[in-house]
Structure formats: structure tokens, C-alpha cells
Amino acid sequence: MASQLAQAHEAAKQSPQQSVELYNSVLFADKADNVTMSDRETALLALAALYEQMQDASALTTLINGSQQFLVTISKAKSSKLIRTLVDRFNGISGALQVQISTCKGMLDWAKTENREYLRQALETRLVSLYLDSHLYTDALALISQLLSELKKLDDRMQLVEVHLLESRVYMALKNLPKSRAALTSARTAANSIYTPPPLQAQLDLQSGTLHSDEGDFKTAYSYFFETMEGLNVYANSKSVSESASAAASYEQQQLQAFAYMILCKIMTQQPDDITSLFATGKTAAKFRDRQTVVALQTVAKAQKQRSLADFEKALNEFRNELQSDELIRTHLSALYDTLMEQNLLRLIEPYSRVEITHIAKLIGLPIGVVENKLSQMILDKVLCGILDQGNGCLVVFPEPRHDSTYETTLDTIKSLSNVVESLYAKAATLYSRASYILKDKWDCVPNCQIPETAGTVVDYKWHHMSPTSVGYIAHNDYTRIIVVAFRGSADANDWVQDSEFSFDPWPAHVPGSMVHHGFLSAYRAVAPNVTSAISRLVAQHPTYKLVFTGHSLGGAESALCAVDMLSRYPQLKQRTYIYTYGMPRVGNDVWANMVEKMSVPAYRVVYESDLVPHIPFEWLGYMHFSQEVWIHGNRTVFCGKDHESQQCSGSVAIGDYNIPDHSQYSLANWRFTR
Predict the structure, then answer these.
(1) Average pLDDT for the chain
(2) CA dihedral for 80, 86, 92, 98, sign (positive or negative)
(3) Average pLDDT estimate for 353-381
(4) High-pLDDT (> 90) share of the chain, %
(5) Residue 325 — very low, low, confident or very high, per pLDDT cuts 50/70/90?
(6) Tell me, what's the pLDDT at 239?
(7) From its phi and psi, is residue 100 left (phi > 0), alpha (psi between -120 and 50) or beta?
(8) Positive or negative, the Cα torsion across 600, 604, 610, 615?
(9) Residues 115, 148: contact at Cβ < 8 Å?
(10) pTM of the model
(11) Quick one: DSSP state of residue 425?
């Protein structure tokens, strides 16, 4: 049989058909002929290479399907490698993409029948790549989702890298750059924990460079493209490694692509002079000097250096296939062409206040229609200040309008005044919240009632409900023009923490899914009719006064419930409502928290140091705070933004450091409510 293989090798050079017959006689020989498995394997691979050379996709499909009986007789690992090699032979046959997909699906069915899971996953990964090349992005993403679920369970890092990389390429083709970036990050994370073969690492670098290019970071992209080209040096030389000629050609093509992208980066960063020095970076770059894509990009670089729009357009037309076939090059050169045209038009228009469009078109060497469309776009984009006089075929250029900063200054002033007003309300709310613990029937408590911010306050309604406990008052101040609704907190935080129950009640009824603490809601409902009636009466009597809800501890929870209740009944009060709570526990679930935020009223939850109470009931029970938190930490007042519970604020305190004494320190805290 060795002699038959030698004859087949010789015949392949002169008579490919005779060589096919000889290889078939070895591959499909009877057992009685004593043909070794090694000889059959050699014949199979040689036949596949011959069909690739003959560009015969149907014969290659027949060979792959017919070899299944032989593949069953060898080890699973070797048969898996052989099948992947055979399927990859389609890459060298032009126009065979659909045939390759069909063949790959057929081998997938065979792998499932034979329970060859590793082979199945390898073929599915290859099928994703084929779907990507065929622009079947929905099919590709569906298969990727299935593969990732399986591979994560198996912890197959190498396969995960490949699939995540394909996922990144699919999302980039769909112009979903955030998801493409996320998938690439996942691929790199998996690759960092294993040895990554240089060809796969080069693909990761190439994808990274492409993403950075799309983001406009051409300097970083250049470094990734350089790493890609260098990483494939050995593999692109088929004499150096045991790679097939087609695989080596594929690696060389990737090198050429990376080198072309390096030139593109120099063009986009306005460094055309540096392109010549790129050819001195080694033998790899030098061998691409005469490739058409490289020549095309060099021509574009010369046009850019001379700022010649005519030469640029000539290069685009002359090398249309080279410059239009690659999406990255096409996209960025299109943007560069628009920029260059814009710069040239601005330079030509600068001396004129009124100029004929035909004259500009003549100077720039472009059709009138193209120039007119570009001028219209520049005017709409506010790059050029002027109008097109269509009747007379002229461009009328206006002087650049002077920037008037009065509007921005006024907005800043209003914002500053708003901060001052909020600070005033916040300080008053703190004092009114303290007063709820010591207030009798009149505004005569010491010292909170004599401070300028609260002096002159009139108590309009006061309540003290025993079971469930709810204590508070409603007052107004004509000097500060506010109406205050203050709820008193628990008398002893230790008792509350020990005795509290954390069950939910649905509330308010008009918000599906909103749930609040049963105990807090029961306490508020016990006094709600009289409290809301008193608030409604005062709001009507003082239509311009601000409405401030405040409370400490459980009083903060009740004040939040009362504010939501009033705003649900009277939405028009949103413009005049403020909520300030101190050491407030969690009141409801995430739906409740989101609902409070959507009401769009200033709401501030003040938390002192490591106070335990704001961290109960616990999150794992389904509770969540609304934003925003104001954390008093040392001598700082930290505004924690729109995160429900920022890990940069009191959420950063370790659970073991929570304490009850801090819950009673709000009246002693030396802090300012300023941003």
C-alpha cells in the first residue's frame, strides 16, 4: 500500500483524476488487503487536499460523508481532529460556504448519533463561524448561547475563549459595540487562566484592535495590530511548523490584514509620513510591500498628506475592490473622506461672504451636486454658518455668532439658589425632626424651638396614637414659608430591633407589585385619615408654601409613607414637596423604591456613620431603600447619587461594624447639607 500511496502522490502532479482513484483504493480497501490505519488516514487527508486544489466542493462533501465508517474505527480524539481538518478544507474552495454549512450540519448529526460530545461542540463552534461569514447572525447567537451554557458547566476554557471571541465578532457585525466589548472581555478573562496558542491570541489581539479603532482610539489599536502580526510570524511560514499550506496561507492573510490596519491607524492619526518606516519593522512587513491592499492604502496616505481630495477620490476609484471589501477600512476611509472634503471646503469658502456653488465645485474638482449636498450637511451640523441661495446658486456665509453665556450663567445662578433653599429646608427638617421627641402642645421646646430657622413656627395638629404607636405633629412657619409634617421615631431602638416583624403588605393599591413593611403601614394607617385631612387643609390655606416630610427612625418610615400617600392623592403637590429622613429603616421592596424615585421629588435619606437601623429589614428579605442616601462619615457629608444603596457610602461598612448607639447621634452630628 505504501507503493500505491507513492504512485498517488506522483500522479497528483500530472493526472489528479488518476491520483483520486489511487487514494480511494487505499482509503476504502477491504480488510483482507491489510491496509494500515495510518495509510488510510494519509489517503483521506491527501484526497481532501486534492479536492481543495481541484476546487471540487461536492466531491469533498462526498468524501467526508463516505469516511464516517473509517472514522468509527479510530480513536475519538484522532477522528475529531480529522473531521475538523476535513471541514476546514472548504476554506480554500471559492463559493463553497453554503456547502460547507450543509456538510458541517451533517457531521453534527453524525456526532450526536455517535455520542461524541467534544466533536459536537467543536463542530458547533465552527458552524457559528460559518453563520457569521454568511451573515446569519440570529442563528449564530442562538448557537452561541447554547454553547456557552454547556462550556461553562464543563469549564472548557479553551473552547470558551473561541466561542466568546466569535460572540464578540457577531455583535460587532451587528454594530452592538458594548456587547461586543463585553464578550471580548470574557474571552480575555478565560484566556488569562490557560495557555493560549499564538494563533488564537492573535485573533484576540486583532479583535481588540478592531474595537479600539471603532471607538477612535487608533494608538491603542495600532499596538494590538502589531502584536497580531508578530504573533503569527512563525505560523505563517509553513516550513517552520507542521501546518498545511492552506493554514499557513490563512495565517499570512491575517498578517496582511493586521498590517493593513496598522497603515490605516497611521492615516487616521494624521501620520502618513510614518508609513514608510513600517516596512523596516522586519521581514514580515517587507513582504507585504507590493500587495494591492497595502499599495492602495499608501496611495490614500499620499493624497491625505497633500490634502488633495481629487487624488483621494482617484485612489478610492482605482483600488475600489481593495478598499471597499474590508468593512473597517471602508468605514474609516469614508469618514476621512468626509473630513477632508469638509476641511477643503472651509478653506476655499473662508475669503468669501457670498460665492457661487459652481465656482467652489470648480476649485475643489467635484460635481456641483456633491458639493451642494455637503454644504447643506455642514450648515445643518453647524460646522458652517450660512444659507444656500438655491435661486441664484450661491452660498451666503454669515459671520460666526458671538456666544452669549447669559443663559448658562443664569442657570448656574438658579441652581446655586436652589441649593441654598434646599440647605435651608434640610436644616429646618433636622430641627423639626428632633422637636418631635420633646414637643408638648405649643412650639416652646428648648433649644430647637428658639433657633432662627424654626422660630415663629405654629403647631396646627398633633397626635399620639398608642397601639400601634404613631406620634407626630403638623406645623407651619410663615417666615420660612414651609409646612412641616414630622413623625417621631421609636423611644428605644434596641426594643424595635428585637421586636420588629418584617412581613410585607401590598401598598399603595394603584402600583402593582409594590410591597411595604406591615408594621410601618399599620402605624401610619392608624393616623392617616386625620393627618392627611390636616395636611390638605394647610396646603389649601398656604398654596405657595413648601411641604416638608421628615422623621427619625420609624418616624422616617412613616413620613415616607405619608408623603407617597399625599402625592398619590394630589399629584400637583410634587413641585412643592421635600422628604428628609434620618436613620430610616428600609420600608418596602424594589417596586416601592422605584415608585418613590419616579415621583421626582427631592428625597434624602440621612445615615450617620455605622447606624444599624438603615440596614434593616435585610435586603435578602426583599427590602430596598429609595435614593438618594446622604452619609455622614467623619467630617464629610457624602451624597451617594441615584444608586438605591451605593457601596461607596454606608453600604461599604462591614456588617460586623453596624451598631445601635450611632442611631441616636443625629442630633449631635456636625454636618452641612451642601454639595
Answers:
(1) 84
(2) negative
(3) 89
(4) 30
(5) confident
(6) 46
(7) alpha
(8) negative
(9) no
(10) 0.58
(11) H
Ordered alpha helix ranges (H), 599-668: none
Nearest alpha-carbon partner for 662 in 636, 638, 635, 632: 632
Phi, psi for 549 (deg, rounded to 5) = -105, 130
The catalytic residues are 553, 611, 663
Q: In what order do the strands lie in the sheet with 482-487?
A: 458-465, 470-477, 482-487, 546-552, 577-582, 603-608, 629-633, 636-639
Residue with grid cell 492615516, as numbered in its chain: 267
Whole-angstrom distance, CA of residue 531 vs CA of residue 4? 103
Res 424: pLDDT: 56
- Checking if the pLDDT of 208 tops 60, the result is yes
Measured from the Cβ of residue 113, the count of other Cβ atoms closer than 10 Å reads: 9
Could you tell me the three cell numbers for 261?
A: 490596519
Q: Angle formed by the axes of helices 157-173 and 198-214, to 10°?
A: 30
Nine cell digits for residue 15? 493526472
How many other CB atoms are there within 10 angstroms of residue 2's CB atom? 11
Q: What SS3 class is residue 434?
A: helix
Q: Say if residue 104's pLDDT is above 80.
A: yes
* Distance separating alpha carbons of residues 641 and 67, to the nearest angstrom: 65
Please enumerate in sequence order all residues whose Cβ is within 8 A of that of 583, keeping only pairs 6 or more positions apart, or say none: 489, 552, 553, 556, 606, 607, 608, 611, 613, 614, 663, 666
Burial of 536 (0-12, 13-18, 19+ CB in 10 A): middle
Distance of alpha carbon 587 from alpha carbon 521, whole angstroms = 9
Report the alpha-carbon distance of residue 539 to residue 461 in Å, rounded. 13
Q: Cite the beta strand spans of 426-537 per DSSP E.
A: 458-465, 470-477, 482-487, 504-506, 515-517
Residue 467 is predicted with a pLDDT of 84
Give the CA radius of gyration of the chain. 38
Whose CA is closest to 159, among 147, 173, 141? 147
Secondary structure letter of residue 269 according to DSSP: T
DSSP 152-184: HHHT-HHHHHHHHHHHHHHHHHTT-HHHHHHHH
Cell of 153: 458547566
β-partners of residue 394 are: 356, 389
Query: Which stretch of 279-293, 419-433, 630-644 has the lowest confidence by average pLDDT?
Result: 419-433
Q: Which helix (H) or strand (E) holds 396?
A: strand 394-397
304: left (phi over 0), alpha (psi -120 to 50) or beta: alpha
The predicted-structure confidence for 45-85, as pLDDT tens digits, reads as follows: 888 888 888 888 888 888 888 888 888 888 888 888 888 88
As given in the structure block, the three cell numbers for residue 156 are 472548557
